[in-house]
Amino acid sequence: MNKIVLIGYMGVGKTVLGKKISENLKLAYYDLDDFIEKKVNLSVEDIFKSKGEIYFRRIERDCFEELMLKDESFVLSVGGGTPCYYENYKLLQDENVISVYLKASITMLVERLKTEKKTRPLVAQLTDEQLLEFVGKHLFERNFYYNKAKYTVEVDGKSISKISEEIISLLG
């Protein structure tokens, strides 16, 4: 039984790829943010606004652990910060977990996030210039955790189909 967990920075395509891979492998698919929203009956954006990031990270940890304890194979897309808090990265080290770091350049991430800022609580208030610096700094801080993934797949310039084929081929 394998749990395929996609990690990487926000905007890298974890949700779209997770759905595609689960469809191709005929496995259940979970999006951690969706799971959290159903659990607390609030959007991630509203959780950040009303209760703050620390509260969100605690709920995120509980929900992540709950999913990882499920006795089934599935594909899971987690938030960009998930591996970086409450030692969540340790849950990715289990022998039944295949973690894949979807790695993108700062330039690609900033271009994507510019159009998605309204739906991203961590960057919603940033100007495009601030966004570049924010993403660069964040990626630097998070690389330690992202690089603990079993596999790294570069995504720049590749289609969703190509990336999903690449990930599926890694699974053996």
UniProtKB/TrEMBL annotation:
Membrane-spanning intervals of the chain: none
Task: Quote the pathway field.
Answer: Metabolic intermediate biosynthesis; chorismate biosynthesis; chorismate from D-erythrose 4-phosphate and phosphoenolpyruvate: step 5/7
Residues recorded as binding Mg(2+), renumbered to this chain, are 15
List the taxonomic lineage. Bacteria, Pseudomonadati, Bacteroidota, Flavobacteriia, Flavobacteriales
What name does UniProt use for this protein? Shikimate kinase
Belongs to which family?
Belongs to the shikimate kinase family.
Q: What does this protein do?
A: Catalyzes the specific phosphorylation of the 3-hydroxyl group of shikimic acid using ATP as a cosubstrate.
Keyword check for ATP-binding, yes or no: yes
> Which residues does UniProt call coiled coil?
none
Which residues are ATP-binding?
A: 11-16, 120
Q: Which Gene3D superfamilies match?
A: P-loop containing nucleotide triphosphate hydrolases (3.40.50.300)
